[in-house]
Amino acid sequence: MKRVQFSHPLLPYMLLLPQLAIVAVFFLWPAGEAIRASFYLEDPFGFGSTFVGLENFSDILTNAEYMRTAWFTLFYTVIVAFFSLSIALLLAVKADAVIHGSATYRTLLMWVYAIAPPVAGLVGIMLFDLHVGPMRDFLAHFGWDMKVGVNYWDTAFVMAIIAVWKQIPVNFIFFLSGLQGVPKSIQEAAAIDCRSGTRRFWSVTFPLLAPTGFFLLIINITYALFDTFGIIDIVLKGEPGNNPITLVYKVYVDGFRGNDLGGSSAQSVILMVLVFALTIVQFRMIERRVHYS
Amino acid sequence: MKSIKLLDHVILILGALFMLVPVGFAFFTSTHDAISVYQNGLQFTPGGHFVDTYTAVLTEAGGFTKEVTGLTMAWNSLVLGLGFAIGKIIISMLAAYAIVYFRLPLGTFIFWIIFSTLLLPLEVRILPSYEIVQGLGMMNSYSGLIIPLIASATGTFYFRQFFKSVPDELVEAARIDGAGPIKFFIDILVPLSKTMVAAIFIIMFVYGWNQYLWPTLITTDEGYFTLVRGMKQILQVWIGAQIPDTNQAMALAILAMLPPVIIVVIFQSWFVKGLVESEK
Q1: Percentage, residues of chain B above pLDDT 70
Q2: Is position A253 within any domain?
Q3: What average pLDDT does chain A have?
Q4: Is A4's CB within 8 Å of B9's CB?
Q5: Which residues in chain A are closer than 8 Å to B275, comparing Cβ atoms?
Q6: What pTM was estimated for this model as a whole?
Q7: Potential cystine with B151: which of A27, A76, B128, B174 (Cβ 3.0-4.6 Å)?
Q8: What average pLDDT does range A32-46 have in this prediction?
Q9: Is A288 domain-assigned?
Q10: What residues of chain A lie within 8 A of the CB of B234, using their CB?
């Protein structure tokens, strides 16, 4: 912390009070409650609950439907992260290379950041709609008879393309600022040594961008796991049926529709462990990045 | 060399179109009437019903929602965005000031309590959070919408980083001049943080305006619906309708995205700086 500090018996605690009160009531309490409830079986009619130890967890992990959701979540996360990162990287490299109009391109490629996922979801499903969707008509020319909400993989495709569309701007902003941080002297030296632009990219620029890329990978995984909730809820029109869903959506469906408090809480705890692990990896990465530069 | 440059532009233009075209469809469709959209699908040419559609959406209740107009929903979104951004900035600045500038016996412990909130997004503790807020009687209220969202300590984290980078000499000088901690905060630290506050304000306003899951759970009374929350309502009515008001649905989507998009585009350089700096 600071070398020079104030000392005052009461003031710092008064400054911290609002933050700590909110954290205690709206964070620690619910998080603790989720952990507690995950070890209990709630009576569906509200007559108390029984301690069942790890039964909720073993029920979930042996449940075929949960495992199917887990596999889909993994698949969805990989697809969304891969495409939004690689498209954004391509665009950032090109936006960094052009001289004319780079400011305009930057604006045109980043403004979608401000659109909420469910709003993107609504526009997206209208584009692929069975009756009014122009994208559906377009794909029908190639023999793809798309049925969003009915066909499992068609729904997954629409969910993924909306999520990628929405995430490209964030990745683009970070990649572009990473690229602009590469010293001009290195770029010039590389340009003299190596005439092929593609090779120069993979052997010089890409390694220099690697720390940004790793950091963004974590951000994108978190995004695909949690922030896509709004997209999925809108694409499924609130009716999951036999359509693909992610783990976070399942916590919501089981908790609010199924009234399965214990099971939903145990699912929350599993996700907490996952996020916790991701955050640790992220902190490690940040430490290494500081070391790196 | 020429052809390579041309290819760069082609790729960038394709990228820009990929971003623009979906919203273009949404906008142009909103300028047609419901029947022509129903017959011909989404539109990509301007129609003559811009004024009708937007007047209906903004001032008439009874399309997708029974009691609330688009204007009320926009107001609620504004309250949520502003309340969240301002509340979060004030609370986290105070907390970060205490953590960085005071000698606290329990400092490390408090630090870890606050930063543990970064580990668990709202989505994973949604059911108990909902029950607690319901138990506190905060359903269908602005405070129930805003305050639980402030619990995450992202703002405190950014301000802590920033305060740590402020030179120590300033505190020394202030103390020599006899300024106490409150005076130092108001007269020196707050003015120094202006750009940082502006950048965080933009990010937090957009974040607050765009909230979906929490408002969906907390507001059942239409009077508290936000525009983004309204997306779900639109779908529920839109599916069952004989001739769905697709033009109005798209108009509401455009209204829901317009304010945050305008802010992000206008204050682009602050916003990008805030985003990139704060994530370090």
Answers
A1: 97
A2: yes
A3: 88
A4: no
A5: 170, 173-174
A6: 0.92
A7: A27
A8: 81
A9: yes
A10: 122
Chain B contacts of A8, Cβ < 8 Å?
A: 102, 181
What is the extent of the structural domain holding A109?
A: 55-292
CA distance A208 to A195: 18
Whole-complex ipTM: 0.92
Instruction: For residue A125, give the CATH number of its domain.
Output: 1.10.3720.10
Measured distance between the N- and C-terminal CA atoms of chain B, rounded to whole angstroms:
37
Domains within chain B, CATH numbers bracketed: 67-278 (1.10.3720.10)
Kindly state whether residue A180 falls inside one of the protein's structural domains.
yes
Residues of B in Cβ contact (< 8 Å) with A165: 18-19, 22
CA distance A1 to B136: 37
Q: Which of B9-23, B46-60, B225-239 has the largest mean confidence?
A: B9-23
Tell me whether residues B249 and A122 touch, CB distance under 8 A. Answer: yes
Cβ pair B119:A7 closer than 8 A: no
Chain A residue with CA closest to B206: the answer is: A114
- pLDDT tens digit sequence for B173-227: 888 888 888 999 999 999 999 988 999 999 999 999 999 999 999 998 889 999 9
Contact between residue B30 and residue B43 where contact means Cβ atoms under 8 Å apart: no
The answer to whether residues A39 and A51 touch, using CB atoms and an 8 Å cutoff, is: yes
